[in-house]
Amino acid sequence: MLLTALRLLYILAASGATAVFVNSLSTARPDLVNAHPFLTWLFVTALMSSLVLVDLIVRRKRIEDISAVYFGVLVGSLLSYLLLQALSPFVAGTSWAGLVEIVVPLALVYFSVSFLLQTKGEFRFIIPYVEFSRELKGGRPLVLDDSALIDGRIVGLAEVGLADTLLVVPDFVINLVQSVADSPEKTRRARGRRGLDMLQKLRDLPGNHVRVEATGEELTGQAAEHRLLTLADELGARVVTNDQNLARAASARGVGSINLNVVANALKPRHLPGDRFNIKIQKRGEAPGQGVGYLDDGTMVVCEEAAPKQGFEVQVEVTSVLQNNSGRMIFSKLAV
Prior knowledge:
It is a single chain. By secondary structure, the chain is of the alpha/beta class. The protein folds into three domains: 2-132, no CATH class; 142-267, 3-Layer(aba) Sandwich (Rossmann fold), CATH 3.40.50; 276-334, CATH 2.40.50.140. Helix content is 50%, strand content 18%. It has twelve helices and 13 strands. It has a six-stranded mixed beta sheet with strand order 8-12-13-11-10-9, with no helix packed on it. It has a five-stranded parallel beta sheet with strand order 5-4-3-6-7. A two-stranded antiparallel sheet has the order 1-2. Helix 1 (2-23) packs antiparallel against helix 5 and helix 4 packs antiparallel against helix 5 (97-118). The chain is elongated and about 115 Å long.
């Protein structure tokens, strides 16, 4: 909205200032302006309005801080003053001096404000005792896609503190999950509702670090994956997803990503039922006939009928794995 208002004000100011110039009673106006005042007004207004078109072509624009407007006006005014001083020997006393004095300040102020708005908080001004810079809570932000919300494992990571950073949920991702929740298909509807429930759980966590990001109109109409990666790139964030193709696209664009399936695979137990390995039986277990050994990471291995093998290394086969908050215990039997 602020950029839209800026563009409208700029076009109105350019149009009004040009109209005042061509309708003034000054005799110092160029003969071309005197002969064709309306065409001159139309041409100059269109020329200055074309700067807005150039600005629209560069689509990376997003309002972060209203102070950008203030600094943009200051910088633009300073630059226009310096440029007018440099141009004064060439235009002073000519019939174009009035038009130059209108065009230069408007154009430079507009571009200064627009540039600072498009930096989205990444700019830094340092003046004595005052520093304006982007502040991020914790590490790099994490941008969640719809698959990560529906999956729900991000909630567990946040609960234990592994995702102790700003979690960004774009508004279009919420719209996608909401559309799934409104689906007439029962399975899809359940998945969508789960995604909305997971978002609410994230918001209810102590020390809530969840922010719903309202994306700018410049991203409207683009594919959701492209919008997600563009937003993550602008925020300097990583994308959290279950979509392997999205993770690959993020890597191709130089955007960091976290695939929850890869994380889960990295955290799965080293030994699963049916696996075989060698272990030294170090002592007898609590139940009759049990022998107890330990892996190199300290995990206790209980082996049935291994008490007579105390002090010896045997091959065992995993029968089950007990995992809780206190750690992990492996139950096994002697391999045949």
